[in-house]
Amino acid sequence: MTSAAKRKPSAATGLQHVPQARAAKPTRRAGRQRDETAQRAILRAASEVLEEKGMAGFTIEAVAARAGAGKTTIYRWWPSKGALAMAGFLSETAPKISYANGRSALANLTHQLRRVGSVYGGASGRVLSAIIAEGQRDPATITAFVEGYAKPRRAEAKKILLAGIERGELRPDIDLEVALDALYGPIYYRMLVPVGPLDEHWAEALAAHVLNGLKKQPTAT
Amino acid sequence: MTSAAKRKPSAATGLQHVPQARAAKPTRRAGRQRDETAQRAILRAASEVLEEKGMAGFTIEAVAARAGAGKTTIYRWWPSKGALAMAGFLSETAPKISYANGRSALANLTHQLRRVGSVYGGASGRVLSAIIAEGQRDPATITAFVEGYAKPRRAEAKKILLAGIERGELRPDIDLEVALDALYGPIYYRMLVPVGPLDEHWAEALAAHVLNGLKKQPTAT
Amino acid sequence: MTSAAKRKPSAATGLQHVPQARAAKPTRRAGRQRDETAQRAILRAASEVLEEKGMAGFTIEAVAARAGAGKTTIYRWWPSKGALAMAGFLSETAPKISYANGRSALANLTHQLRRVGSVYGGASGRVLSAIIAEGQRDPATITAFVEGYAKPRRAEAKKILLAGIERGELRPDIDLEVALDALYGPIYYRMLVPVGPLDEHWAEALAAHVLNGLKKQPTAT
Amino acid sequence: MTSAAKRKPSAATGLQHVPQARAAKPTRRAGRQRDETAQRAILRAASEVLEEKGMAGFTIEAVAARAGAGKTTIYRWWPSKGALAMAGFLSETAPKISYANGRSALANLTHQLRRVGSVYGGASGRVLSAIIAEGQRDPATITAFVEGYAKPRRAEAKKILLAGIERGELRPDIDLEVALDALYGPIYYRMLVPVGPLDEHWAEALAAHVLNGLKKQPTAT
DNA sequence: ATGTAAACGAGACGGTACGTCCAGTCTTGAA
DNA sequence: TTCAAGACTGGACGTACCGTCTCGTTTACAT
Fold this sequence. Notes:
In chain A, 64% of the residues lie in helices and 0% in strands. The first copy, chain A, has helices at residues 36-57, 60-67, 71-77, 81-93, 105-120, 123-137, 139-166, 176-192, 200-214. Chain A starts with 35 loop residues before the first helix and ends in a 7-residue tail after the last helix. The relative contact order of chain A is 0.12. Chains A and B meet through helix 1, helix 6, helix 7, helix 8 and helix 9 of A and helix 1, helix 6, helix 7, helix 8 and helix 9 of B. The structure holds a DNA duplex.
């Protein structure tokens, strides 16, 4: 028996938390089926350990112990610590960070920035920071984060920007990618580098300053 | 073992790379003097290991081996891995990242952002990323980074912003701290989270978008 | 889970390699019938793995893989690694080690020792060594070996000794058990502790030296 | 730093328990010196664990825990479980098994066999069995046992046999190696394969039966 | 000139966590 | 009811570094 890569789900990113539709009926493979209970316990444990102990205490052994699982089970489904952290974050924490969909694009963005600032300034931010930190030593982790979390959310935000341009709220010549960096980059920055508080108040000010450069007729105050 | 804390230089931050003037003559204590050669070799080795192997390969043992030093010597002068990385960065890498001082504040800031974007996109960025990552698990490290690097540089940048306001180039009602976050946050973001390239071209676009919101009479184009 | 001990054949020794006649027709139980093919494949695989990889490579998983069987099937029929090794040995290797039945007891014993020495010095010896080694950590295994292999063979050899005494070839006052130890012990010793070769030549010398003490009128040379 | 074999003492056998005379004075190597206390604690723990728990419970982790040592320290000095067991046996148990030196060779051998039978039938025998068992899966272990224990003792016994021949007590044409196998093989056999008791009484009977074949003028009784 | 005290290299030490291998158990779907 | 497949908990493996601790040597001040 030599085939090394034994069908790990989504080996590239190690995300695998979406059961990818369970191909119709027929090809149900032999052998004991994957125990969803164990998976959930592991993901929950991962999130909890990360929130409580931080990156330093986030060891595979700690997660396994808390989940009442064997280390083997973890390694069977997630290729690395980072992948596990990501999966835990995506299944436990990420759902709490939803998008708003108010009326005006400007109001939308302001509201969204305020929310994100508030959430990232709390426990979720600590989980996120840990993942990004781990990503600096393990490329797979940062890739998983970018592809599995960052990019989808940027796509979402991009829609709001486009809507704003269409309605004439925002300048039509803005570079969307750059605009996204300008809006969200500072939040990550404050989350990772505590040069000052990361809260709703600050986020609102940030929104005001940056959006001012993106608006069609910026107020000269 | 008598006095536990045996006079580690600047224990709070673990920076200690500036020999702090060696108070006059008198208190020169007995015993062998600190070997500056060894210190330099260690700092250089730290930087090199960080650049070459990344965070994953940055172990005290690796640095000691490359520097031809004993682990003891490292622990004698730096309290932790993060502190060592910081010191290495400050003595080897940071000096390369200088400030410009052109004429107009806008030109100044644009030029500066372009330079920083370019430098942080390279090997120096990898060192910096590693430090920030390490800082997520060791509070002393991130503190050392904020106090020893980030804040001084923010102060420097703040001067340029103030000069811009005085000269009427920038709006007088901007929140300086928020403006700094808006300008530099995105660079750190792209450095740590590769959602896209981090180079001069992107940095210039960023400068344009953000400064547009800070200018006195923004072009409506 | 109802009845724990689910009718494992001969649980005490775990031997079970003789299918014990399958009681005629009537009590033919419901459900899929036991697959004799699988059993044979497992035993053969056990023997082969033991011969080729030695004790170190003799894992239940390796045997299952080579036999194309599930681990469950092995555990259903044999209680432990040692029992499996024993069963494999008894069904594959032991049959090759037959008894001679020449004329004179002395010639008989000499011939027999030479054969045993030769066989135990080869691949079969490696299997046997592994079983005895495993027996040191698992009492059930050594018991199975003693009861299922050693004692029956000793009984066989004892008959030859008794015949020798009756015919006046051997001294009548010898302790049969001790005599058996003296004759066969050294072979096991050399098999397990390589202080020297284990071959026919050595076995013949051994026979000469030991039988000399058991003969009625030992030659003074 | 790549040199793999970092000067493990007597890597071939892994014995290393004799400090090999500490080459005169000069070449005392740099670095902290080996902690004899730790070594002794480890060897003692190894012996104890082996006696109490048997081979099954003899894990490196158990020994380390009992000795209050780190696993690293064990691996630094002994290449394998078997080597550790051997070293423990040689330093703790073996010294208790001394040689007699009475007058007649026959009396000497009888006495010696009785002693060895008695000792190997007890706790020491269990240690020894475990080592030989481990030796079946790890060639280095059995080699260490043969070279470090078995052969030296055989050499000792050989001297007694030779003395017996010189004094005319034993037949001059006996093959010494074979005679040793005949005398001691059965003891190892009974130690490893419990076909019957291993005690002084049995050992005496064994001595009588085997020596009868080696004596110059064997009694016909 | 001779202590004496600190700094240095080397490297052994008790530990923690790693990622892997098997053991032995349990579950599923097919035969 | 048995079988192959294979997921599960769990324990030990051997390795890599951690941060601490001697060692024996080197250096330079203080006597």
